Automatic annotation (TrEMBL):
The gene is prcA. Belongs to the peptidase T1A family. Component of the proteasome core, a large protease complex with broad specificity involved in protein degradation. This is Proteasome subunit alpha. It holds the Pfam family Proteasome. The 20S proteasome core is composed of 14 alpha and 14 beta subunits that assemble into four stacked heptameric rings, resulting in a barrel-shaped structure. The two inner rings, each composed of seven catalytic beta subunits, are sandwiched by two outer rings, each composed of seven alpha subunits. The catalytic chamber with the active sites is on the inside of the barrel. Has a gated structure, the ends of the cylinder being occluded by the N-termini of the alpha-subunits. Is capped by the proteasome-associated ATPase, ARC.
Length: 287
């Protein structure tokens, strides 16, 4: 009888971590920056149907890179968790820290399970507070650990290089236009030192704006408003605070789903959008 092939637990975990990291690195980067009036999300994403940045609850947003169907299931589960907790207790009881803990338990369980492959995703959960000091930004790698971030954070692609670039240039009290310019500059720098050009059509941009009078602080920046910001034009307070009707149609990107779809505590691929992920190129398979 042949001797069974033995792999040490340490080696098995290293192999699983390497597998997940390679999958995440193939995705395009997402940058999250704190600015004077809120939190800015910028992703290199030419798709207008498959979002990397989404609203979860009133003051909470979600950003992700990696395999689309996996992080889409996590997003849907997060929306369900937030809605249920807000309905059962109080809307103020829904926090980014609580949601990050739920995601950490899910990712950690999947990563340590030998029966299924680790998720090839890295998440950011952010919550805007009444003041900049109250903002919360959490990064969740593939293994379910939680990292409390401040100022700026990048995930996916050349995350280390982008993070170093942001750390050396980001400052407190930046305007929205200044923060967006810095985020785009960091995304256009390649590993060899050269620079690319990213247009408004290649970017997905959203903010959690603490000045908005609405209870829901999430807003996508699209079309002419994004173009003007990229050109360095700072929006007026009224324009930034008020939501344009056509933009706010996309505030919550929860797709149609059956009752059997995945929740925050389960794996699999329950999203209808995920069915198109393989056919949607790099932005769907490795977003």
């Amino acid at each position: 009888m042949s001797t069974p092939f033995y792999v040490s637990p340490q080696q098995a975990m290293q192999d699983r971590a390497e597998y997940a990291r390679k999958g995440i690195a193939r995705g395009r980067s997402v940058v999250v920056l704190q600015y004077a009036d809120g939190i800015l999300f910028v992703a290199e994403n030419p798709s207008r149907a498959l979002h990397k940045v989404s609203e979860i609850y009133d003051r909470i947003a979600f950003a992700a890179v990696g395999k689309y169907n996996e992080f889409e299931n996590l997003r849907i589960g997060g929306v369900r968790y937030a809605d249920l907790r807000g309905y059962t207790y109080d809307r103020d009881d829904v926090t980014a820290r609580g949601l990050a803990n739920v995601y950490a338990q899910t990712l950690g369980t999947i990563f340590s399970s030998v029966a299924e492959k680790p998720y090839e995703v890295e998440l950011i959960v952010a919550e805007v507070g009444e003041a900049p000091a109250d903002d919360q930004v959490y990064r969740l790698p593939h293994d379910g650990s939680i990292v409390d971030e401040h100022g700026s954070v990048a995930v996916g692609g050349n995350a280390d290089q982008i993070s170093s670039y942001l750390e050396s240039r980001h400052r407190e009290g930046m305007t929205l236009a200044e923060a967006l310019k810095l985020a785009v500059e960091s995304l256009t720098r390649d590993t060899n030192g050269s620079e690319r050009t990213l247009t408004a059509d290649q970017l997905e941009v959203a903010v959690l704006d603490r000045r908005r009078p609405q209870q829901r602080k999430f807003k996508r920046i699209l079309g002419g408003q994004l173009t003007r910001l990229l050109e360095g034009e700072q929006p007026s307070a009224d324009a930034s605070a008020d939501a344009a009707a056509d933009d706010d149609e996309e505030i919550l990107d929860l797709p149609d789903e059956s009752p059997g779809d995945a929740s925050a505590g389960s794996g699999g691929s329950g999203s209808e959008d995920a069915a198109d992920s393989d056919a949607s190129g790099d932005d769907a398979g490795k977003s």
